[in-house]
Amino acid sequence: MFRKTGVIGLTVIVGGLGWMAWAGQQDTTRPDDHGASLVAACRKALDHCDVDAFLALIYTGETPEGRDLSAHRKMFEADCRRPIESVTIEPLKPKDVTSYEMHGVHYRPTRPPAGKLVIRFASNSEAAVHDELTTFLAGRSERHWHILTAEPDR
Prior knowledge:
This protein has helices spanning 36-47, 51-55, 70-79, and strands at 2-7, 10-14, 58-59, 84-90, 100-102, 105-109, 113-121, 131-140, 145-148, 150-152. By secondary structure, it is an alpha+beta fold. The protein has a single domain (32-152), classed as Nuclear Transport Factor 2, Chain: A (Roll), CATH 3.10.450. Strands 1, 2, 3, 4, 7, 8 and 9 form a 7-stranded mixed beta sheet that branches.
């Protein structure tokens, strides 16, 4: 998960790890090639402040590090109270970070990323922050898109 807050040249990025669960409301009869079901399920979870529904959208992989969703839970609990402008799936750009190293351990996404889920918040014209969003890597299984988290590259 990445949070980007633009304030006149200042960028803050916060990363986190997570675990996997299925989103029971996703249609299993046909492939979701464009991420529409992930966008709709994420928007619904945000609109209802339903943290469990949101966490169910995350593909966590096989490691204990990938299954720790505490950072995702805290981020969601803060973000769901804010007015949402849009939720979209966007293509990855060459400069997007998809892996990182922390304390000598290399981390990678739990599935190959196929895009990014971008949550844009409605701006408050009186606030110092005018462009705020939360971004997650997103990947596909055979039929569904999922929010990805990070796990050690072993």
